[in-house]
Amino acid sequence: xxxxxxxxxxxxxxxxxxxxxxxxxxxxxxxxxxxxxxxxxxxxxxxxxxxxxxxxxxxxxxxxxxxxxxxxxxxxxxxxxxxxxxxxxxxxxxxxxxxxxxxxxxxxxxxxxxxxxxxxxxxxxxxxxxxxxxxxxxxxxxxxxxxxxxxxxxxxxxxxxxxxxxxxxxxxxxxxxxxxxxxxxxxxxxxxxxxxxxxxxxxxxxxxxxxxxxxxxxxxxxxxxxxxxxxxxxxxxxxxxxxxxxxxxxxxxxxxxxxxxxxxxxxxxxxxxxxxxxxxxxxxxxxxxxxxxxxxxxxxxxxxxxxxxxxxxxxxxxxxxxxxxxxxxxxxxxxxxxxxxxxxxxxxxxxxxxxxxxxxxxxxxxxxxxxxxxxxxxxxxxxxxxxxxxxxxxxxxxxxxxxxxxxxxxxxxxxxxxxxxxxxxxxxxxxxxxxxxxxxxxxxxxxxxxxxxxxxxxxxxxxxxxxxxxxxxxxxxxxxxxxxxxxxxxxxxxxxxxxxxxxxxxxxxxxxxxx
Length: 515
Hints:
Shape: elongated
Strand order of the largest sheet: 8-7-6-5-2-1-10-9
Mean pLDDT: 95
Distance between the termini: 31 Å
Largest sheet: 8 strands, parallel
Radius of gyration: 24 Å
Number of strands: 18
Number of helices: 18
Helix content: 25-40%
Structural class: alpha/beta
């Protein structure tokens, strides 16, 4: 495998994303004090006490889905429940069980054939990050002062930093989500240092400083040596020094040539993939396209409006619009990177897929069927398989219900079947994609890998629809691999060697073309 190619294993992977504080709480971690009740609605700052040992105790459930890789939201020591505010990159948070818990989780996951990808936050840290704390205590005298972007007056005149500004000072900081936040003029002027998105809690890291850079690259190498199988890289595009990412890739791949590097970049950005960048991006555009089609009339625009990027990207699509969008996305990247894209329907940053679909289970089933039939690695957000719902953060980060009586077992059985279908047919994991027909609220396409072929059909409309598929196909050689419910399509051949398929309303199916 060349340094520029994604790891071969990703093509066949199915990921399961876990928000550690909310997945499972074990008895092996001693809590320092009271936690937020597990079953209560999540709050912005509350800790529920999920830990890595709890994940270990639920690995059998995850394995029963057919999952082959875990993606963990940040696990390093932090004073936030999501742990994107890092204060020690070399220590797993004690509330999660510490380094020993990660060691055991990696061993147990690997024993089951599961890879584990960690979340890396290298653009910014927290004001509790020990080098930043050193600067807070000693100001211009700190040898770590150049690890951050400080106002010159801090360095020349001894101006104090305002890392914990009073309310009146905080109010002067704009919540700037445009391009100007990268320059950080407001935070430098007001706080004395550049803060990401002008948030005082998040000092931006100066990766151009050789010592800061080496520290972060050492972190990346350390956890890959420890046994992690890759990195998901938070707000990767906001580190604008591209030589950092080139060196990051080279150093990580020198430790493990099969390490997976996937960047959190929300739009179509082929320039971020390749030998000096990343293997893949979080494929939000595909997820929005799938949900925009599958939800049909059930798409809840009010829920989508809870997050700006979701509101902008998640739009209603008919069959033709969906087919066009998929073809655009598949042709935007080289095939080897398409096969490695992290194909998600939702995440910790978005409302839950079920909520975006207006709580309509049929929509989620159609969306999942399409997700499993696309090139790239599907990713299931914890709890989607049992019907968890939730609006924008923090509601999308609810605690996973430990009582199986609270699970949607019908949906769980379907999700297991969907993952199994993908694993059973190489065509669904191959590079070949061809739109067969798209019209109204329906679409059908072919997936291929060498001699393996599969047909995928979906009808997001409220009425049955008849599709005429161009050949060559033999109706007698179609074997049903997956359907969204117990209903079946009606299939017959045409004189020209094509197929006529009548899809039930609000339904999808996959057929293997037997040899």
